[in-house]
Amino acid sequence: MIPIFLFLATFLHLFTTTTAIGVNYGMAADDLPPPSVVANFIKTQTVFDSVKLFDTNPDVLRAFAKTGISLTVTVGNGDIPTLTNTVAARRWVAQHISPFYPQTNIKYICVGSEVLFSKNDDWINNLVPAMRSLHYALVKAGMVDIKVTTAHALNIFRRETVPSLMRFMVGYDLSFFAPVLQFHHRTKSPFMINPYPYFSRDLAGRLNYALFKPNRGVYDKYTRKTYTNMFDALLDSTYSAMKALGYGDVDIAIGETGWPTQGDASSPFATMENSISYNGHVIKEIISGKGTPLMPNRKFETYMFALFNENLKTGPLAEKYWGLFKPDLTPVYNVGLLRQSAPTPAPSNKNFCVPKVDASYAQLQSNLDYACGQGIDCTPIQPAGACYEPNTVRSHAAFAMNSYYRTKGQSYQNCDFAGTGVITTADPSYGNCHYL
């Protein structure tokens, strides 16, 4: 395993000056650092140049303002039918995008996620109309550089065959995928897919093929191409299906891909070694820009899954362990995602108290008022103070809650705040704002 670490880390550092990669930032956890800390970490210490979110969390959007990091935000599947109405779409843009744009570099709006996988006809039938309405709303708002897309799970093909013969499912090819691709062609937005070899059928019999390890490969006699890994095969399968509908010129973006580091008995292939092999080789391939057998030298905008482990996720144990970094911002393993000049963050010897990610505005305001009313020094979060920006209740509450916790004895009770506080070793300090 050590040689894999060294090879991939060395390789990736050769490319990080010119090429980068994105990451999915999920927040289904109660032990994560505040968004401002995450944004500063991504900007200053990682090679990530883009972040994909699963909602439009305003605290996260504010945290990434003026960082240069591009963001993808997501519309919930349940909101799709409403957004077919152009008035509702314009209202949505005014509420969720306009307050943050252009200070926050919002690049894509992802309308729903894996909608076809849901088998919900209301979402499926209204997806393209909602995408059109949101595009219209963005144009009317003067935000023509924000593109609209949607992410697809790769259960979208008719049957498993060689990549050149892959086609979209009958019944959805012309009624669903053709309009989706026509929209992307017209608006110059990417067709986004979530390729996960980890979830492929018969993984036990094709594990080496999925992990980029030595294997006999898959020969496509129609193109005379040999595939030595499943990742390339999935990308070329997608391209072939798109080309068959006349849209081979539409860009392909990878919205999610990854491999979990641990699981229970139901997930025997969720291991650290397998995660290192898959994620390391995918990152190497994407950053190299070598493309695939059918798309040589083609670069794919890619968002790795995921930034952190998420301990509140439901389902099999493996669902909690897709993270590339721990809550203290140290890497789970090294595949070259830290900048070459950045030292690996070390866990702090100090503990800090920050709000839980699901703490409401009212709870945060109450925590802020209480902490500052107990005699702690809140002048740094007053106007012109070192911690005044970002001027949000969450940011100010985080500073006040931590100051209260640090000055009142640092017991767990001092960070409870009616169940809305959490203790972390990740230092929330940023810029000239220094937490006690």
What can you tell me about this protein's structure?
With 436 residues, the protein is α/β, with parallel strands linked by helices. It is 33% helix and 13% strand. It has twelve helices and twelve strands. The strands form three sheets. The chain has an eight-stranded parallel beta barrel with strand order 1-2-3-4-5-6-9-10, surrounded by four helices. Helix 4 (86-96) crosses helix 6 and helix 11 packs across helix 12 (393-407). The radius of gyration is 23 Å and the shape is globular.
Describe the structure concisely.
The chain is α/β, with parallel strands linked by helices and 436 residues long. It has twelve helices and twelve strands.
Oligomeric state of this protein = single chain
Q: How would the global form be characterised?
A: globular
* Residue runs with pLDDT of under 50 for 5 or more positions: 1-7, 9-18
Largest sheet properties: 8 strands, parallel, barrel
SSE run = HEHEHEHEHHEHEHEEHEHEEHHE
Question: How are strands sequenced across the largest beta sheet?
Answer: 1-2-3-4-5-6-9-10
Strand content: 5-15%
Mean pLDDT: 91
Query: Into which percent range does the helicity of residues fall?
Result: 25-40%
Give the tally of β-strands.
12
Query: How far is it from the N-terminal to the C-terminal residue, by CA?
Result: 39 Å
Radius of gyration of CA atoms, rounded to a whole number: 23 Å
Derived from helix and strand composition plus strand pairing, the structural class reads: alpha/beta
Compute the number of helices: 12
